[in-house]
Amino acid sequence: MALLLSLAVLAASLPWASPAATPGTAFDNWLTATQTDYRVNQALYAKKAAGDNGTTIDESLSKAEDNKTTYVVDPKGSGDYKTINAALEAIPEGNTRRVILDLKPGEYREKIFLNLSKPYVTFKSDPLNPATIAWSDTAATVGKDGKPVGTVGSTTVAIESDYFVAYGVVFKNDAPLAKPGAKGGQAVALRVFGTKAAFYNCTIDGGQDTLYDHKGLHYFKDCVIRGSVDFIFGFGRSFYEGCKIISIVKEVAVLTAQQRTKTIEGAIESGFSFKNCSIKGESGGQIYLGRAWGDSSRVVYAFTEMSKEVVPVGWDGWSIKAPESSGIYYGEFKCSGPGSDAKKRVGWAQDLTEAQVKPFIGTHYVFGDSWILPPPTGKSAPSTKSAGGATSSAASPAESPASSPKSSATESPASSPKSAAKDSSASSPKSAAKDSSASSPKSSASYSTASSTKAASSATSEKKAL
Ligand SMILES: *[C@@H]1O[C@H](CO)[C@@H](O)[C@H](O)[C@H]1NC(C)=O
Ligand SMILES: *[C@@H]1O[C@H](CO)[C@@H](O)[C@H](O)[C@H]1NC(C)=O
Ligand SMILES: *[C@@H]1O[C@H](CO)[C@@H](O)[C@H](O)[C@H]1NC(C)=O
Ligand SMILES: *[C@@H]1O[C@H](CO)[C@@H](O)[C@H](O)[C@H]1NC(C)=O
Ligand SMILES: *[C@@H]1O[C@H](CO)[C@@H](O)[C@H](O)[C@H]1NC(C)=O
């Protein structure tokens, strides 16, 4: 609460660096209002963040994957369930197996909350003919108790359980876009609070506060993310690879509001890393790469194409008074495009060296070897209805994962922001190829029972490469 209050107090002196942004008081208030109703569960984060340092496939996951089951969901009525909520209700609490919801194409007009007692759930769709899950609540929507639901409550799909996977799904909040200055316009399409969640070929579509990358280890691969202000925010520790990030406003968009901070337990481990992504404004406007929600906000862009809408200063300190001496860590590495010119960046943003960027630009950043699996692209096995109304795939006997020699996958943040003097020659995307091996989910794909030794050794060599 103290933090929120101080944010409000400091709002009047927001250090917006670009004169073109010219936010007025109403705009400042609105920005502040976006931050007043976030809730976090600190104890839970501490528990989930621990893990085994991510060097071996989690045993529980291994078992869950060896005992998959599929529920067909079809709004037209020819599946096991007509709605996603009905299918989720059928999953037992304390679920231990991979449950794949095979989502037939169409619009699912549902608001979804996946309880933490139901891990190992997959939403599988077809990216070319997707299932679209849409709702249109905003923070100002009045809930059952007569009060506004707030940012968290506005969410269309909330995932609080662990080991969630989505493939080819469109997550959408289609509330009308809030006007700058309006209150209660936050409209979250997807909130991810569980750890070890992966999203492949998904679209996350909204306006203000589209993707609440709330907490935990997350991987976004080949996704499209659309929004306006603070549209990727939270204190997840996440790796975004090959994603298209699109501002939909003709005013000012802020791509990230990363909340790494010392004041929330576990949040200091968080950060957003973008690799091989593209950033553009589909309606023009201006795009800030990020602004500091947390006192130690951390965001890295590598090999990312930035369109002309990305403002030259790049970043904003928001309410942090002296960003250069705070814990903020904003860096770029070999990005390309007209918005990537590092010459006019704020002095406290970093043109990273290869050594500095390496911890961020692979699935190792999210300890992916312990949980990232290949996307569930294949056709699901023909269904034979089982007692539970679901279909079962052949279960192969579980094999316990190799216990590999553990090395601590530490990130090595160079903590002092570099001086304003920049080497702009470093920003060409030339050597993009060199690190590709470290970042593909392939090594963890070899997770499947027989090759666990291989997975372990590739994890080891990845660590060495760092
Ligand atoms: C995880 O890493 C930390 C820090 O390097 C270390 O102290 C701890 O023993 C490791 N835990 C496991 C289970 O390997
Ligand atoms: C697979 O899951 C079902 C439902 O939880 C359980 O009854 C069955 O014993 C599991 N099979 C294996 C091999 O673990
Ligand atoms: C999750 O499910 C448990 C068990 O049914 C329930 O007690 C809890 O309130 C649920 N959590 C939320 C946030 O709804
Ligand atoms: C997933 O997205 C990537 C990048 O857009 C694309 O190359 C790939 O074909 C997609 N995969 C599927 C199965 O659609
Ligand atoms: C970058 O992403 C695109 C798809 O968005 C993909 O086709 C390409 O192979 C990726 N390049 C690298 C070096 O990962």
Automatic annotation (TrEMBL):
Residues 379-460 have a biased composition (Low complexity). It comes from the Eukaryota. Residues 376-466 are annotated as: Disordered. One of its GO terms (biological process) is pectin catabolic process. The active site is at D230. It is an enzyme of class 3 (hydrolase). Residues 72-366 form the Pectinesterase catalytic domain. Keywords: Aspartyl esterase, Glycoprotein, Hydrolase, Signal. It holds the Pfam family Pectinesterase. InterPro entries: Pectin_lyas_fold, Pectin_lyase_fold/virulence, Pectinesterase_Asp_AS, Pectinesterase_cat. Belongs to the pectinesterase family. This is Pectinesterase.
